[in-house]
Amino acid sequence: MDYGFFNGQFISLDSASVNLEDRGYQFGDGIYEVTRVYNGKCFALDRHLARCRRSMRELRIPITYMDEELTAIHYDLIEKSGIKDGAIYFQFTRGTSKRTHAFPDQVIPNLSMTIHESTPNAEQQKNGMRCITCEDIRWLRCDIKSLNLLGNVLAKQAAHDKGVDGTIQFRKDNNLITEGSSSNFFIVKDGLIWTHPTDNYILKGVTRSILMEEIIPKLGYTVVEKAFTPEFALTADEAFATSTSLEVTPVIEIDGQKIGTGTPGPIAKALLEEYQKLVQKECY
Ligand code: PMP
């Protein structure tokens, strides 16, 4: 059963109500995380909690929960919902206060969380995604996982409108690819893996970090953290996207053009296999 948590109380989702003057509603003044649950266990939760703290620090939202508490709430949600395979969403907003742009005094952050059943899209992982490119119109602090997602929403909708699976964004000023609408993006060319460096233009994905720190070195591949153009991506041998939801999913087509052979590439497949082994080790 889908379930929620708001400021200390476990609740069913249809009974939850949030104050109309929560700054998340009025300004998108907050941050969020999505974590995956496999076999009733949280995967890579420590990395998500660390990123959550960083996002809060960058926005000067005070931290009101210890990691141990947040971890316990994750496990309570899993237990109360009975969900074994799913995703937990949590967000902190700056709090509730009469609407005014500057930070209000004496405001306490609101924490809300939901759990839903879901599993990775195995068919897409096997067959790959077809993507389009679109201009990255987001703000200049994409390293913060803020609630402001309109750029990402419009990018994803553009893919839906075109009947494809995803969107890869590029900055118009320099014609460089940044990332997907809710994923990091990689290409493979001449045996090297390329991806955008972690600066203010992309989110430092947990999945990206796991690949870079634990999986890619183990498999003996080399990564260059360097931005590239959409035209360069079209000449790649392989491409793939990573996120908590996608894990590692091959990208087989961009703007109607095949990448490599137009089928999932061997490096993307090897990375996915190794990622799933890590999930097995941590959660089963
Ligand atoms: N970039 C963006 C814009 C995202 O929304 C996400 C998904 N949270 C990612 C990258 C991938 O991050 P992660 O691997 O932590 O899910």
Describe what this molecule looks like in 3D.
By secondary structure, this protein is α+β, with helices and mostly antiparallel strands. The protein has two domains: 115 residues, 2-Layer Sandwich (D-amino Acid Aminotransferase, Chain A, domain 1), CATH 3.30.470; 162 residues, D-amino Acid Aminotransferase, subunit A, domain 2 (D-amino Acid Aminotransferase, Chain A, domain 2), CATH 3.20.10. The chain is 32% helix and 29% strand. It contains eight helices and 15 strands. The strands form two sheets. Strands 7, 8, 9, 10, 11, 12, 13, 14 and 15 form a nine-stranded mixed β-sheet that branches. Strands 2-1-6-5-3-4 form a six-stranded antiparallel β-sheet. Helix 5 links the parallel strand 7 and strand 8. Helix 6 crosses helix 8. The longest helix has 18 residues. The chain is globular, with a radius of gyration of 19 Å. The model has no long low-confidence stretch (mean pLDDT 97). The structure holds 4'-deoxy-4'-aminopyridoxal-5'-phosphate. The site of 4'-deoxy-4'-aminopyridoxal-5'-phosphate (PMP) has 14 residues, from helix 6 and strand 13. It comes from Selenomonas ruminis. GO terms for molecular function: D-alanine-2-oxoglutarate aminotransferase activity; pyridoxal phosphate binding. Belongs to the class-IV pyridoxal-phosphate-dependent aminotransferase family. Its cofactor is pyridoxal 5'-phosphate. InterPro entries: Aminotrans_IV, Aminotrans_IV_CS, Aminotransferase-like, BCAT-like_C, BCAT-like_N, Class-IV_PLP-Dep_Aminotrnsfr, D_amino_transT.
